[in-house]
Amino acid sequence: MQEKILVVGSSGQIGTELITELRKIYGSSNVVASDLRKPDFFELDGPFEELDILNPQRFHEIVKAHGITQVYLLAALLSATAEKNPKFAWQLNMDSLFLVLDAAKEGLIKKVYWPSSIAVFGPTTPRVLTPQYTVMEPNTIYGISKQAGERYCEYYHQKYGVDVRSLRYPGLIGYKSAPGGGTTDYSVHIYHEALKKGTYECFLSENTTLPMLYMPDALKATIGIMESEAAKVKIRSSYNLAGMSFSPKEIAAEIAKHIPGFTITYKPDSRQQIADSWPQSINDDEARAHWGWKPGYDLSAMTADMLTHLKAALQSS
Ligand SMILES: NC(=O)c1ccc[n+]([C@@H]2O[C@H](COP(=O)([O-])OP(=O)(O)OC[C@H]3O[C@@H](n4cnc5c(N)ncnc54)[C@H](O)[C@@H]3O)[C@@H](O)[C@H]2O)c1
User: Fold this and answer.
1) CATH no. for residue 11?
2) Domain count for the chain
3) Residues 91 and 229 in one domain
4) What is the Cα–Cα distance from 112 to 238, expressed in whole angstroms?
5) What is the pLDDT of residue 234?
6) Which domain holds residue 94?
7) Residue-level pLDDT at 38
8) What is the pLDDT of residue 93?
9) pLDDT of residue 39
10) Which residue in 9, 100, 125, 207 has the most C-beta neighbors within 10 A?
11) Cβ(218) to ligand 1 under 6 A?
12) In which residue ranges of the chain is pLDDT below 50?
């Protein structure tokens, strides 16, 4: 059967890149992008539907009109933005998930992808090589919504047989799209500023080590778990996923190997407190053993690739 995919939140950091990858695999006409508005920085070569995911009627209309079989639900308020508007963050992050899980429960769609985050962990979680199963006491509204979301995913799978798959993304870094208000956004901004100004003021302190993943690896994991046989996806809350871990000081040193004289200064803001409550590194043994996850990029490979692509984009603009 021909899969028909709907990506909700397709104009964001992950969505813009995921749409391109999915269209390569399934064909442009079989992957429907949807968001509050079209992305303003590139042309979509396939269907786009304007959708506020808090409007269930419009969601059902789109699902029926396109004969959608799979939904990737990416719309959410991210960690730093959610802290500014906690009630709305809870409403958006949870109501959208309920809507999509219920559509799968009712048989309107067959498969759901929903990303969780390392924000499900909190200050009482062991911070080094954080295991899949551990203490989880998130203290941000974003983390609380992701943890509750994970519980709902597992519940819908066990109780109603819903085929939902999920990954706990670490901070994601890519050159094609801008980050959307998270605590790890600095790791994207730093490359842009290094090339444009040769210096960067970081909103986290120099030794704040956090788990990160390069976008090509994030796309590989996302599509990988969605294409795995159902029996291999044994965890239906969300899988730990690791790529690399580094601090602002370490990424700055790596960038300086390519841009001699690059400097970094530090001015921690409210995001520091969020970062301090998150793990420094993640153990992803289950994802590797169950469905064959393996990252391809470390800090040095990512930095070389990011700078090559950003330099080319700057030169052509
Ligand atoms: N980027 C990361 O580092 C990271 C890390 C962990 C988890 N995640 C998760 O991955 C998912 C996608 O993240 P992202 O970085 O692409 O986020 P983003 O903020 O860049 O993109 C989210 C998109 O959702 C859209 N959106 C917001 N409200 C909407 C609504 N009511 N209806 C339809 N669309 C709406 C926004 O316009 C935006 O284009 C989120 O669930 C996020 O929590 C991201």
Assistant:
1) 3.40.50.720
2) 2
3) yes
4) 12
5) 98
6) 5-170+214-240
7) 84
8) 97
9) 76
10) 100
11) no
12) none
Query: Are the C-beta atoms of residues 34 and 60 closer than 8 Å to each other?
Result: no
Q: State pTM to two decimals.
A: 0.96
Q: Could you identify the atom of ligand 1 that is nearest to the CA of residue 75?
A: 24
CA angle at residue 217 from 104 to 33, to 5 degrees?
A: 45
Among protein residues, the one whose CA lies closest to atom 28 of ligand 1: 75
CA of 79, closest atom in ligand 1 = 43
Whole-number pLDDT of residue 1:
81
SS (H, E, C) the chain: CCCCEEEECCCCHHHHHHHHHHHHHHCHHHEEEEECCCCCCCCCCCCEEECCCCCHHHHHHHHHHHCCCEEEECCCCCHHHHHHCHHHHHHHHHHHHHHHHHHHHCCCCCEEECCEEHHHCCCCCCCCCECCCCCCCCCCHHHHHHHHHHHHHHHHHHHHCCEEECEEECEEECCCCCCCCCCCCHHHHHHHHHHHHCEEEECCCCCCCEEEEEHHHHHHHHHHHHHCCHHHCCCCCCEECCCEEECHHHHHHHHHHHCCCCEEEECCCCHHHHHHCCCCCECCHHHHHHHCCCCCCCHHHHHHHHHHHHHHHHHHC
The alpha carbon of 181 and the centre of ligand 1 are apart by a number of angstroms equal to 9
Verify whether residue 160 is a known catalytic residue.
no
Residue 201 placed within a domain:
yes
Q: Is 281 in the pocket of ligand 1 (CB under 6 A)?
A: no
